[in-house]
Each structure stands twice: as C-alpha cells, then as structure tokens.
Amino acid sequence: MFNFCKICLKEFEYHGIFKKTCICNSCFKQFKIIDQKEKINGVITHFIYEYNSFFKTQLFHYKGCYDYELRNIFLDRFKYEIKIKYSSYIIIPIPSSKKDDEKRGFNHVEEIFSLLNIKLIKAIYKNKDFKQSDRNKQERLKVKYDFSIQENIDLKNKKILIVDDILTTGSSLRSAIELVKSKNPKIIKALIIARKLD
Ligand SMILES: [Zn+2]
C-alpha cells in the first residue's frame, strides 16, 4: 500500500502494524522517542518525544503557519495504542491563548487529541489572556492563578487524562492537575507529546 507523507510529501510504501501511518520512515526517524513516565504532583505523566529541532519545526508549521493537515503527524504511530489505553478516560486539554486560537482558527492541542475519538471536555480555561513568552520568570511562576476550571463540571469518579503539546516549566500542567483534583475524579493521568530536555 502507498501513502503520501504529510511531512516530506513523498510517496511511501507501508505495511503491517503501521498501516495507518501518515509519515514515512525517514521523517519518523527524526522524531526522538523518549517514552518517559514521571510523577508530577502525584500524577503519572507520559511523554512521547523529546522536543528536538525536528519536533519544533513541525510544531511551528502546524501551530504557527496554520498547516492544519499536520495535526495527524504528532500521535501518528502511537494513536491506536493511546486510544486503547485511554478509551474510558475523559480528555481535558491545557488551554492556550484564546487570541492565538482565534487567529489560527483552531486550537492545536484539541485538534491533535480529537483524532482519538475519545470524549474531550474543555473544562479548564484561561482567566486572562497572557502569552507565556510575554511574561518574566516571576510572572510565569504565578501562572496557576490564570487558569480556572468550570464551576459546575462533574468529574467525580471519572477517569481524566490531561493533555498538552509540550512541557517546558511544568507550571501549566501542575495547575491543571490541581484544578482537576479539586473535582474529585477517580484517577488522573497526563499525556504530553513532547518534553524539553536541557
Ligand atoms: Zn516523509
């Protein structure tokens, strides 16, 4: 079977377990898989890739140049594994700047994870619209005060998967975890596509 790679646009042959892949092997090899699991605020957090220059470029094309077709490439070969593992969970994405979403016409994280066909709720929202890069370090540490969780949302005894594209300082993830915890779910896990390793 043949398909066109969504990254290099070349035709490639695929078979076997990667039947549904949309990226060729030479592009796939440029992602650095780390498959790390780490507890953050008591929550097992799974990281798939390292945020290397290849990942950064692809994310920029998708998020910064609005190449919507690229939403498929990030979970690609992990999609089915994740779908099976978290089919009974509710996905809650970490919100990003509303202004950027409006400019882009889509929220990049929601679009990636909606491909899993798992229930997704935008339970967390930003109080004020700040961009992380516009803040100084001290302001970034106070980021938890900028997020809120929907007042009437019922997450009691539910299984929650918090998701995001990249982890940098971890402060957004920690605040999201604390907000979700306040709603007494049965279990919380987190899945972050790429992590910055310094
Ligand atoms: Zn390719």
Q: How many H/I helices? A: 7
Query: Going across the major beta sheet, what is the strand order?
Result: 3-4-9-8-5
Name the beta content range.
Answer: 25-35%
- Mean of the pLDDT scores? 89
How helical, in percent, are the residues? 25-40%
Question: H/E series, N to C?
Answer: EEHEEHHEHHEHEEHE
CATH domain class of the largest domain = Alpha Beta
Short synopsis of the structure:
The chain has 198 residues and is of the alpha/beta class. It contains 7 helices and 9 strands, in the order ββαββααβααβαββαβ.
Commentary on this structure:
This protein is α/β, with parallel strands linked by helices. It has 2 domains: 1-30, no CATH class; 31-195, Rossmann fold. Helices cover 27% and strands 26% of the residues. The chain has 7 helices and 9 strands, in the order ββαββααβααβαββαβ. It has a 5-stranded mixed β-sheet, sandwiched between helices. The chain is globular and about 50 Å long. It starts with a strand and ends with a strand. The model has no long low-confidence stretch (mean pLDDT 89). Bound molecules: zinc ion. Zinc ion binds at residues 5, 7-8, 10, 23-24, 26-27.
